[in-house]
Amino acid sequence: MNIFFSILLSPVLANDFLDMSLEELINLEVTSAAKTPTPLLKTPGAIHVITKEDIRRSGANSIPELLKMVPGMNVAQLDSNRWAISARGFNGEFANKLLVMIDGRSVYTPVFSGVYWDVQDLVLAEIERIEVIRGPGASLWGSNAVNGIINIMTRSAETTLGSQVSAWAGTGATGGLSVMQGSEIGSSSYLRLTAKGFTRGVNQLNGRDTDDDMTMGRTGFRWDYIGSDFTGKTTGSFYQGQEGANFDQVSYKGDYHDRFNDDIDMKGGHLLSSWSNQFSEKSSLSFQVYFDYTQRKGAFYDEKLQVLDVEFQHNYEPGPGHKFTWGGNLRAYFDDLTAHANVFMDPEDDQYTQFSLFVQDDYPLLKDLTLTLGTKVEHNDFTGWEFQPNARLLWEISQKISLWGAVSRAVRTPSRLDSNGGIVLALYPPGHELNPTPNAEIPLAIPIIVTFQGNDEFESEVVTAYELGLRSLVSDHASIDIALFWNNYKKLRTGSNLPPNIVFEGDLPVAIDQVSFANNELEGETYGIEASMEYQMTDDWKLIGAYSYMEMKFDFGGQLEEFLNSFYANHQASIQSRLNLSHNVEADIWVTYTDEIEVQNQPELWDLTLRLGWQPSPTWQLELVGHNLLHDHKKQLDSEIISMVSSEIERGVFLRLTCQF
After folding, report:
1. How far from chain centre, in Å, is Cα 433?
2. Among residues 577, 486, 469, which one has the least CA distance to residue 69?
3. What pLDDT does 13 receive?
4. pTM of the model
5. Radius of gyration (Cα) for the chain, nearest Å?
6. Do 416 and 345 form a contact (C-beta atoms < 8 A)?
7. What's the pLDDT tens digit per position in 529-538?
8. 365 contacts 5 by C-beta, under 8 angstroms
9. Nearest to residue 124, comparing CAs of 201, 54, 221, 190?
10. Burial status of residue 186 (CB atoms within 10 A of its CB: 0-12, 13-18, 19 or more)
11. How far apart are CA 495 and CA 63, in angstroms?
């Protein structure tokens, strides 16, 4: 194990988290739930906020690692770069029921209705907070916000003035360099420039290196204009990199597996501009436009995707406590997909659009009782019109206790893969319980290759969610947040087997090509509870806990259908201890637990992260962090696609020095 050293130059490291009282934390303003700033205590939804101090004290080096502290989130690392992330079940590398945004820009790809987590990377010090909603948010944010929303919000350039430089190196050839420069360029104008380059080392599988390393570079900027009534921001980024990945090109020859390592080349960028005008104390109008470009080249397919998005929003307050919000959105996609082995797409390039209007009314029925009604009407080129309403009720029992309930409907629109693509899902060799050969029709023992084939009549998946929650500042030292949910799913993706096609070589049958044709015949329900608690033991010691329980009730049509939809753990837990040993020494412990995942025979997983921080001066800090400390190397999850091979994630240790100038 190579011990690595890091040098990180960043802003002054004030202890914002411990300086803020729990009352201030529970009244933090959030925007993702209502699209307008609302105190957390007055938000009728299951929302968790990861603050910039949470980020600093976590010891995390990437955005996915941070999400492990959120109750109800399913987070698993597949190799050095690939992640499986979802909310309230249905996890997998290609999880498709979670909407992810960065500063209001969707990074959800319509190719497979998911997120490329390997390229969602920022300088962590530039993140203001991450708002995580569990449960539907489609009435405001639109389709695909089915089981949750992650909104990553960067800091205003005004708050990051000065120069920052970061450099690190570590176990497994991990290392990198980042630069961040913030400047005031006028009386109301601020600019931040960022650049970052890094490498990630390899993991292991069956005692051998997996060559799943990564090299990535990115640049970015944010410009803020802050006027008395007129404000705006413009952001942009460009990234380029290469990562190693392990594949299994299944076939009917040899031992049926051709396992190999190949590089995925990726690059992309975005340009976003958002502006808001405050007409009066009761009325404001905002407008946003962005362009996003993604390009990936890998063993199974090459992808180019361009997205153009325009939206507006009007906020109006007709009376005290009464808020009326409405707006619209137009989004256009342009893709070009070249399929290789184990994947096909027809047509290979396509253009499609979606447009929508939404309205939401927050009306005070009584002084302490607020009713929220809203809906989004959306049209897409795959399924036509979709309606996604929601009703919420908030009861402010006191200034420290709120109770809320919600009923929501959301849809996941078809991806390109669902409609006109295909991918190899599984291989059943001779002797497998799902392989009936040899038999009377086929006297030889031959493999079965199962291929998913899209259907241009595939409909949107639908969820109706019922939620109930309590949020309370129990005392000056403790706060709790509890959410109960019951989700009813209809029209979920599954497949019906077409008549098998026997593959011949000469006169001999050598394989069965079994096509699973996409349909919407799966139904079922999930239910559970999520809870988080913060307890300020002393002025210098805080405990943060999270727990979630979830159960699925589905009548699956077979083992493959169950396997593809059941990546979840019944029980998950997280506990963090954040202790200031002295005025300049911090000691943090983070323990996580994930219950077994039965369909993968994946045993329960305990993990430990330790962080020791020393701040000898107000401008720099030294940190020693260890992660995955309970295992030398451990597989966390397999991909749901047989062609994608996971690694065993190794233990790591790093040293980080943080300064400002």
Report:
1. 35
2. 577
3. 42
4. 0.94
5. 25
6. yes
7. 999 999 999 9
8. no
9. 54
10. exposed
11. 34
**Per-residue confidence band for 2, with pLDDT thresholds at 50, 70 and 90:** very low
Residue 311 has which token pair?
């939206």
pLDDT of residue 10: 35
pLDDT of residue 122: 93
Torsion of CA 130, 65, 550, 645, to 10 degrees: 130
Q: Which residues pair with 394 in a beta bridge?
A: 370, 404
- 562 — phi, psi (to 5°)? -65, -40
Element (H, E) at 562: helix 559-565
Q: Which residues contact 619 (CB under 8 A, 6 or more apart)?
A: 12, 659, 660, 661
Element (H, E) at 53: helix 52-58
Are the C-beta atoms of residues 486 and 464 closer than 8 Å to each other? no
With CA atoms as reference, report the closest residue to 594 among 583, 608, 580, 584: 608
3-state SS class at 16: helix
Residue 511 vs residues 313, 342, 438, 442, 642: alpha-carbon distances, Å: 56, 15, 11, 10, 17
The answer to whether residues 177 and 210 touch, using CB atoms and an 8 Å cutoff, is no
Tokens of residue 178, six digits? 């980042």
* Single-letter amino acid, residue 631: H
Task: State both tokens at 389.
Answer: 């309403």
Label residue 582 exposed, middle or buried (CB < 10 Å: 0-12, 13-18, 19+): exposed
For residue range 463-522, list pLDDT tens digits in order: 999 999 999 999 989 999 999 999 999 999 999 999 989 999 888 889 999 999 999 999
pLDDT in tens, 106-129: 998 898 888 999 999 999 999 999
Average pLDDT over residues 304-308: 97
- Report the pLDDT averaged over residues 295-323: 94
DSSP for 218-269, written as a single string: EEEEEEEEE-SSEEEEEEEEEEEEEEEEEEE---SSTTS--EEEEEEEEEEE
The number of beta carbons lying within 10 Å of the beta carbon of residue 319 is 10
CA distances from 437 to 428, 433, 506, 507 (A): 10, 10, 19, 17
